[in-house]
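Show me a record, fold above all:
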Amino acid sequence: MKLPSHFYAMVDPAFGHEPVALAETMLDAGAQILQLRLKDVRSRDLLAAARAIAALCRARGATFIVNDRVDIAMLANAHGVHLGQDDLPLDAARRIAGAGAIIGVSTHTIEQARAAEDGGADYIGFGPMYPGGLKSIVSGQGLENLRAVRAAVKIPIVAIGGITEATVPEILSAGADAAAIITDVLAAPDVGAKVRSILAIH
């Protein structure tokens, strides 16, 4: 697959955002691929948010991914799911989601990246790139590791972890196809303006 944009939008309740409204703001600003990440909510509330955002994305022609939960992704009519290393195995998720679904896998090493590609992942997440970020990362992977992973796999790479608008160019030049950004976007005083600014980077 080819990712539709170099900005991979993360819909997360951090900094007090309501997920559906946040998704709409991001779509209005031009985001073309969104991932819903709601870690600590009831399944029924996650499904409700996912269904609402899926409808928004389909109306705008944007790609919608649900984090972790294959069942929610399928019930919400999302385009796919993003799996962490501790989530359902890739082959099991593929059996549930079907051949047409997009499946991304979070990776942290070259070995994990190759395993994801060999297992049929459509893209990989790779990180954390830099210290800091939403998870207060102590040390990041850095650009050299990103370049090494780029050399090891052919599928698209979404870099994540401590990335800001200012570091997007070096992430892309090191081989990432897209940057997933949480804190720098969600903490911005004007999320829509921040998204537009990142999308304008070439």
In short: Residues 43-60 form the longest helix (18 residues). The chain has one domain: 7-199.
